[in-house]
Amino acid sequence: LRLLYKNAGSQTENGPDYALINLHETLNNVFLKAIRSSYEGFEDFDETVVTASKNFADYQCNAPMKMSKLLKAKGQNIPLFTVANKIVECLDHCDIIDRVEVSKPGFINIYLSQFKLRDILDFVLENKLKPNPLLHPKKIIIDFSSPNVAKEMHVGHLRSTIIGDSLCRVFEFIGHDVMRLNHIGDWGTQFGMLIALLQDKFPDYKNVSPPINDLQEFYKQSKVLFDNDPEFKKRAYNCVVKLQSMSPDHIKAWKLICDVSRQEFQKIYERLNINIIERGESFYQSRMESIVKYLEKEGFLEDDNGRKIMWSPEASIPLTIVKSDGGFTYDTSDFAALKQRIEEEKADAIIYITDSGQSTHFETLKKCAIHAKILNPSNVDMHFVGFGVVLGEDKKKFKTRSGETVRLAGLLDEGIKRARDKLIEKGRDKVLTDEELKLAETAVAYGCIKYADLCHNRSHEYVFSFDKMLEDKGNTAVYLLYALTRIRSIINNLGSHCKDLNAAISVFHENEWKLTKTLLRFGEVLFKVINDFCLHYLCEYLYDVATTFSEFYDNCYCIEKNPKTGEIVKVHDGRILLCKVTEEYLNTGLNLLGIHTVSKM
Ligand code: ARG
Fold first, then answer.
1. Ligand 1 atom nearest residue 330's Cα
2. Atom number of ligand 1 nearest to Cα 355
3. pTM of the shown model
4. What average pLDDT does the segment 158-172 reach?
5. Is pLDDT of 534 > 90?
6. What sections of 202-328 are H helices per DSSP?
7. Is the confidence at residue 3, as pLDDT, over 50?
8. Which of 550, 485, 541 is nearest to 517 (CA)?
9. 283 touches ligand 1 (CB under 6 Å)
10. Is the CB of residue 280 below 6 angstroms from any atom belonging to ligand 1?
11. How high is the ipTM of this complex?
12. Ligand 1 lined by 359 (C-beta under 6 Å)
């Protein structure tokens, strides 16, 4: 099924999809086809045969080496050079290739067509970087963010939120039908404690909103009572039972508690511009009851000291489906959620984004779901996308100085303050209007927090450092945002000269050509992103584009001015158009990372 997203870009009614054109894959396919028809025995050859070239060519094919070895093993002694030439003879016409050259002892150098690539960029400039609609969009459910009610949303949830949102954006961009789900922890024993406390302290909670703004405090209090007061504990359990059987009063109290948390979560989502549908564990209560019945009936459940557990022959640990007190667990709700997403939502793929610590949970869930015939892995893709922990600058788990978890709202506030200080330090407050400064500081603050997360390989831990992420050199959001505003101001400063740009994009100068090829790696990069669920490829690409642009701009005049009057005397139309199309790629890429861009900063 992975292949289906991989080829997504080419499955269109309207011919080739220039927005997502994958040059590398196109070349690889052409060469594979040639290889398969070159010599007997290679009909099923299936490897990556084309790689980016490290010498003067654009790409190269090193397959002759391997092929000649395989031929030798079959008693056919054919020189490398001959094999290479044979492949070239078998090549179909391909319009992105200008020419191929065989060099000794047997390398095939591939040169891209400057005219064709220029046409592609011209097309993108004209039509924007918008993929064609997919013939067969997939329903993709992405389960991300998912904080817990009555507990603080912490940096782990922040990572899940940032990575999840960006992955959603990429799949949406390609044209899939994405469902963004917030599987919040809003069900379970802790709600019994919370409701019992609410009943004690605010018996009038049904009419007046109780002061539980500090839910964490409230949670701590109830926990103390639960652990020390057997009477309270009994009542708490009773409350869980009542809640799970949907007693109106208990539901009312539960809703109040969830609302308080929800408002906090929502503030964070609004600040970070995150769209997500809340569908917490509670949503699955009746489905949990039926899945337990099903598993029981089919004989999948085993008794383990009063607990009901489920093993799969493949898994190293079991799932706990029913606790000894009869309650359901995290495993139960995930099992029911998986079934609901497959059967009711008709998902083609389900992607879970949490810290890597939960990988065993999801692996076990997958194996058990396959075992119970709920998940058929040839129809539905279930992926776990894990990420490493966030560290503080002391390389220890990210905590406040007093050792508490860092509050997200406070963290975002600090980002804003630091971004503002940085802009003022550069004297930008003297150039920008108040409104522009405000836009710039939020773009920088949230942009740098998101980018710092996304630009690291997600499976590694990363160090959260405002100083690092706010640097304006190197692979940072600030650098990219500056690169973009620079291009925008080049274009804006043209004023009336911009109207009648009448040329094709310039691609023939060495630096223009390098930028062209860099831009057109976009499709290849995006497919790598969805294949590995890794956004750092996109970050690296954008950083490459920005640095290559800057080389181009340093070496190629775009606008010539009279040195005395500052008046524009010559505009290099084709280069301005190259600036414009670069802007299109950078802006689109930053949007896919969930980073808001500005025109001035
Ligand atoms: N609420 C969980 C946590 O904070 C994350 C939920 C992830 N999604 C899921 N379907 N289990 O760790």
1. 11
2. 12
3. 0.95
4. 97
5. yes
6. 215-228, 230-244, 248-272, 285-297
7. no
8. 541
9. no
10. no
11. 0.99
12. no
